[in-house]
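sorry for the late reply, my laptop died twice this morning and i had to redo everyting from scratch. anyway the thing you sent over, i finally got around to it. pasting the sequence first so we're on the same page, its 247 residues, then the predicted structure underneath. double check i copied it right bc i was rushing
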Amino acid sequence: MKAAPQAQQRLIDLQELDSSLDRLAHRRRTLPELAEIERLSGRRTELRDQIVSAETELGDLEREQKKAEQDVEQVRARADRDQKRLDSGMVTSAKDLASLQAEIESLGRRQSDLEEVVLEIMERREAAETKVSDLRAEAGKDASDLTALTERLDAERAKIDEETGMTGTARKGVATDVPDDLLALYEKLRGQFGGVGAAVLHRGSCQGCHLALNTVDLNRIRAAADDDVLRCEECRRILVRTAESGL
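ok and here's the structure:
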């Protein structure tokens, strides 16, 4: 393949622009905000499940407390009725009086036990309420952080997209200076060799594979015409000669 030395030089300019575009695309794909957003999104799902579980537990405790308080009230009411009967003097039998007194004492112990149960449930309910409150606060903070991260991500993407657009425009201008056949070869090699299709020969070394050329290859390059399109024997990329090639 033949191409004017100036066209081959423009190929290096094109390669630099393409490498810039590749770096911009990589940067856009790997912005740190993306990983943090993914983490927070997963955390939000976890928190939502934890909040539902904590709220369910709190609801169960509220019902349990209500039931225990009702039990206390029932025992208290029964004890009050028995006490009134005892105080009224209507019960005169010694046996009935003893039985009524024993029942009042039993109800007192039962009421005391139930009140302890209510207190224990209230403590558990208070802990459950704190847990729900803390989880909701954490979820609120995460939501705020997620909003801020999304805004920052959008801003970073906008900057990258703007730079990509300017670089892409410059690339189009440079590409018009490269012959179609040379451009097609360059594009093909770029796809094969990690985005680098052309490299400078600098002081006897290919800047694509960073290997020094042997004497035979260097002599072949020295003997080639200026418009010959050369390839590195090691990496097969297009090799562009400059004043600093060491020839």
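The CA atoms of residues 50 and 186 lie 56 Å apart.
thats about all i looked at so far, will dig more tmrw
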